[in-house]
Amino acid sequence: MTLAHAPLAAAVLAALALAAPAAAQDVSAGERAFGQCATCHVVQDDAGTVLAGRNAKQGPNLYAVRGRQAGTVEGFRYGRSIVQAGENGLMWDEETFVAYVQNPNEFLRDYLGDNRARGNMAFRVRTEEEARNLWAYITSLAPAPAAPEDPAEAPADAPKTDG
Ligand code: HEC
User: Fold this and answer.
1) How many CB atoms neighbour CB 69 within 10 A?
2) Residues 112-153: tens digit of each pLDDT
3) How many CB atoms lie within 10 A of CB 15?
4) Which of 24, 41, 73, 102 has a 20 to 30 Å separation from 9 between CA atoms?
5) Which residues form ligand 1's pocket by a CB distance below 6 Å?
6) What is the domain partition of the chain in residue ranges?
7) What is the atom index within ligand 1 of the atom nearest the CA of 138?
8) Which fold has domain 23-140?
9) What's the gap in Å between 111 CA and the centre of ligand 1?
10) Ligand 1 centroid vs 52 CA: distance in angstroms?
């Protein structure tokens, strides 16, 4: 009789869930961790819908942060160092984000090669794992930016044959 198997199936599923290796990036853990960011940041899309956080404006909106030049949310008053870093080419990808959120001042000092550089974000994420989870969560809220170059359209790099 099949009903007798139901508890077993549930137990097997539970065991599988427990056995699953900790994902390198865990969106739901990132969502929980975002509570720490929400005192200062919101994630709000272009239509004005708040996707995460409440309405904090002490930090810039983190919507569509992937691929964005640092220090460029319109209307937000950044510190000089992060704006300078953005002008020097700092873009948010997983690696820059993960390093930055664990120590914004040190990151900006390294990036600018200037020991006096400092940022206005007075917060540090404690572990790299948490930083990666946050990245997974925040980027899950916005579509991936268009690739700068579509490899399908890029010229084939096969050597030219002259006839
Ligand atoms: C105490 C307030 C505060 C908290 C908490 C905080 N931030 Fe920030 N954050 C800021 C401020 C202010 C800036 C602007 C930094 C500057 O101007 O130097 C910023 C900037 C950033 C930037 C750069 C954005 C851009 O537009 O270039 C990222 C990414 C970021 N924060 C992520 C996070 C994440 C993720 C968390 C949670 C783990 C977090 N912050 C927690 C205040 C905060």
Assistant:
1) 14
2) 999 999 999 999 999 999 999 999 999 999 988 776 665 555
3) 10
4) 24
5) 36-37, 39-41, 58-60, 62, 65, 70-71, 73, 78-79, 82, 92, 97, 101, 119-123, 125, 134
6) 23-140
7) 35
8) Cytochrome Bc1 Complex; Chain D, domain 2 (1.10.760)
9) 17
10) 14
Assigned token pair, 127: 């572990």
Structure tokens at 108: 């900006």
Asked if residue 87 has pLDDT above 80, the reply is yes
Ligand 1 atom closest to the Cα of residue 60 is 26
Q: What number of other Cβ atoms are within 10 A of residue 12's Cβ?
A: 11
pLDDT (average), residues 55-83: 97
25 within 8 A of 133, measured Cβ to Cβ: yes
Q: How many angstroms is it from 148 CA to the middle of ligand 1? A: 26
**pLDDT score recorded for residue 161:** 54
Query: pTM for this one?
Result: 0.81
Q: How far is the CA of 51 from the centre of ligand 1 (A)?
A: 17
Residue 112 to residue 109: CA distance in whole angstroms: 5
Cross-strand bridge partners of residue 73: none
CA of 109 to the centre of ligand 1 (A): 16
CA-closest candidate to residue 125, choices 103, 158, 145: 103
